[in-house]
Design a protein that fits this description.
The protein is of the alpha+beta class and 313 residues long. It folds into two domains: 163 residues, Ribosomal Protein S5, domain 2 (2-Layer Sandwich); 135 residues, 2-Layer Sandwich (Alpha-Beta Plaits). It contains eleven helices and twelve strands. A hairpin with a 3-residue loop joins strand 5 and strand 6. Helix 1 runs parallel beside helix 3 and helix 3 crosses helix 4. The protein is globular and about 55 Å long. It starts with a strand and ends with a strand. The structure holds cytidine-5'-monophosphate. Pathway: Isoprenoid biosynthesis; isopentenyl diphosphate biosynthesis via DXP pathway; isopentenyl diphosphate from 1-deoxy-D-xylulose 5-phosphate: step 3/6.
Length: 313
């Protein structure tokens, strides 16, 4: 029986800008996404029977259809019925290291790993863009999780354009374990507060004066200038998440206090991160934040930029 082990890295957002509301009710975005070394491991193998079985040691992770990894396996069954009949169902085990509901795309990465794993198990020979098209039906972040590295994501977040890869930039991540922010809540809160500024048709959003533009950040990435990258971090969702979650606001302020390249919240939060120029600087931030906030509920990680998404090991 064939089996594969995949690594599914977390992502952070270096830029997240909301351009407006789309006709499909999602938000039109410009994001710059970056994968980091902090990753989940996903084991997958074929079953003789026709079911999908999901395991995870973390009791907070649902094991049914509400888990995106489960839905990824279901989608492959529906799309490739002949291969499914021939190979049978799949058993998937998630080894979680990425915090859950954290703004780090952990669930999307697991789903991306299941798509890649089933492609291999069933010998489908799908291309990266085939897999990304399937991934976009599961969630806006899944296509990026498949390719990873550094990329611009537009549309709902599912249209991916790769950027030059970056090395040697370290990241300290902080998240309160008991704190989760719902992504739909964050976007809806943003919409309630800023709807009056937005038109409904994306075409009408071009050249709007409030746009921040990711151009300076993209130029800094092209120049591999870590200092400028750190100075140009941006996230519109901070405007609603930080006021609603004082602990996240306090954590962000604590991160900012220690020498770093730049501090920001990732995605819809509540994870906060600082970029660091070296492992030593990252370790110093880690220890200083830990000393200032000894709360055992606060999880801290030191990781670094990585240049790929899901991969088989
Ligand atoms: O695409 P995904 O299912 O991951 O998105 C989760 C939720 O985040 C959506 O249901 C929506 O509320 C919000 N969202 C959005 N606009 C986007 C992406 C996500 O409003 N571009």
């Amino acid at each position: 029986m064939k089996s594969y082990t995949l690594v599914a890295p977390a992502k952070i957002n270096l830029h997240l800008e909301i351009l407006g509301i789309r006709p499909d009710n999602y938000h039109e975005l410009v994001m710059v996404m970056q994968t980091v070394d902090l990753a989940d491991r996903v084991d997958i193998h074929s079953l003789g029977t026709d079911n999908i079985i999901l395991h995870c040691g973390n009791p907070k992770v649902p094991l049914d259809r509400t888990n995106l990894a489960y839905r990824a396996a279901e989608l492959m069954q529906q799309e490739f019925p002949d291969a499914f009949l021939e190979n049978g169902g799949v058993e998937i085990t998630l080894h979680k290291h990425i915090p859950i509901a954290a703004g780090l795309a952990g669930g999307s990465g697991n789903a991306a790993a299941v798509l890649v794993g089933i492609d291999l198990l069933w010998d489908l020979g799908l291309t990266q863009s085939d897999l990304q098209e399937l991934g976009s039906r599961l969630g806006s972040d899944v296509p990026f999780c498949i390719s990873g590295g550094t990329a611009i994501a537009t549309g709902r977040g599912e249209v991916i354009s790769p950027l030059p890869t970056l090395e040697g930039i370290y990241v300290v991540l902080g998240k309160y374990q008991s704190l989760e922010v719902s992504t739909p809540w964050a976007y809806n809160a943003y919409r309630r507060e800023f709807e009056h500024e937005y038109a409904r048709e994306p075409a009408a959003l071009v050249d709007r004066s409030h746009r921040v533009h990711s151009g300076d950040l993209v130029r800094a990435i092209a120049a591999k200038d870590a200092v400028k990258i750190g100075q140009r971090l941006y996230n519109d969702l901070e405007k609603v998440v930080l006021p609603a979650y004082p602990l996240v606001n306090q954590l962000r302020k604590e991160f900012e206090r220690h020498p770093n390249l730049g501090t920001m919240m990732s995605g819809s939060g509540p994870t906060v991160f600082s970029l660091a120029a070296s492992r030593e600087q990252a370790d110093t931030i880690y220890h200083q934040v830990r000393a200032a906030l000894p709360d055992p509920d606060l999880e801290l990680f030191v990781t670094q930029f990585c240049d790929r998404g899901v991969r088989v090991i």
